[in-house]
């Protein structure tokens, strides 16, 4: 069999395979011989049909099957031997002049190739690496929240400032039905909070969502509105009061400190505030890392230029699902997935350039760390190494879990690489400033 590649451009080629009689003759004859004892032709006993009649009745179908097998195996081996880095899988080209009776049969397969491109992680950019701090106002508010959380609720008849008001926000048109516990100080302006003063259980207070909070994104938390809907939302919502509670604040003493952080870890209000600041900034750092990762990703996808075999991939998308797509649907699907494909290629190039690999030891260490964090959330702060390694072994025996954990380890390694190489501008901000920057407002 003769196999060659014909280049169309840098990312599109055609594999041309010329199949001759000797490539499949032996296997076809073997199949016909196997068929003879089982062949049935009118006028002959089973097993006594002449070979030429068996060939006439079954030979063409057998030939087609065997040629298909030969071509498929040769194509697979050729791709492996040439070390072709493909996007999608080969697509057979239609040839109206093709005939199974030809002495030489030519099969052509279109292939899309992974493009070659340069990746400059240190390119000039306007990416910001945020250092998010917990300011005194946030910390003081958290101290009061802790005191209220561990304080003693005191049922009240009428609403007063700082009381907890439990109820449900509703709006039929926007399908809002959101149970919430609020205070009169939650709102952006005092006039809105004043509407609740003096109200009792069963009363309904109507407010408008426009400018309801300092940050419109609070609508997502309080009213369970999607991010796409919060900007410019201006509808009336009814709040039906279901419960009114004052709170006798918990005393800031050693008993409360031990309940929060374990015996002896915090002993004073200053230490409590320091612990709140530390824990909050750990969470903020994780959010800042996620934003940095997203910003670097967007920058690299936008600024790393390379061609993709677009037309080939759109045709390929029509064939790969359980149900074939129409050309129009494939066009839509390709538009939806192109950015993700580009980033996958960029990610692969970044890992290759930095010689980053995920070892089994990496997986074990990452899994052990995750397990310890999960156990700590349930109060198991000092598990033994033996306990943790036993869980690690069970987790890593599941191939789906291994794949998921491998992706997470790769993500962590890429984040470290981007932090080192991306030349981001470092900026220290408060959490509200970070939220504002994250949503481009």
**Contiguous runs where pLDDT drops below 50 for at least 5 residues:** none
Number of strands: 11
Nearest-angstrom radius of gyration?
34 Å
Helix-residue proportion: 40-55%
Helix and strand string, N-terminal first? Answer: EEHHEEEHEEEHEHHEHHHHHHHEH
Coarse shape: elongated
Q: Determine the number of helices (DSSP H or I, runs of at least 4 residues).
A: 14
- Overall pLDDT score: 92
Descriptive notes:
The structure is a single chain. The chain has 441 residues and is α+β, with helices and mostly antiparallel strands. The protein is built from 14 helices and 11 strands. The strands form 3 sheets. Strands 6, 7, 8, 9 and 10 form a 5-stranded antiparallel β-sheet that branches. α1 (25-35) packs across α2 (51-81) and α11 packs across α12. The longest helix is centred in the middle third of the chain and has 35 residues, at 269-303. The two termini are 64 Å apart. The mean pLDDT is 92.
In short:
With 441 residues, the protein is α+β, with helices and mostly antiparallel strands. It is 48% helix and 18% strand.
What attributes characterize this protein structure?
single chain; 441 residues; alpha+beta; 4-stranded antiparallel beta sheet; 14 helices
List the helices and strands and how they pair.
Elements: E1 2-9, E2 12-19, H1 25-35, H2 51-81, E3 86-92, E4 105-113, E5 128-133, H3 136-149, E6 152-155, E7 164-171, E8 176-182, H4 190-194, E9 204-208, H5 218-222, H6 227-230, E10 236-248, H7 254-261, H8 269-303, H9 310-320, H10 327-353, H11 360-377, H12 385-395, H13 399-421, E11 425-430, H14 431-438
Parallel strand pairs: 5-11
Antiparallel strand pairs: 1-2, 2-4, 3-4, 6-10, 7-8, 7-10, 9-10
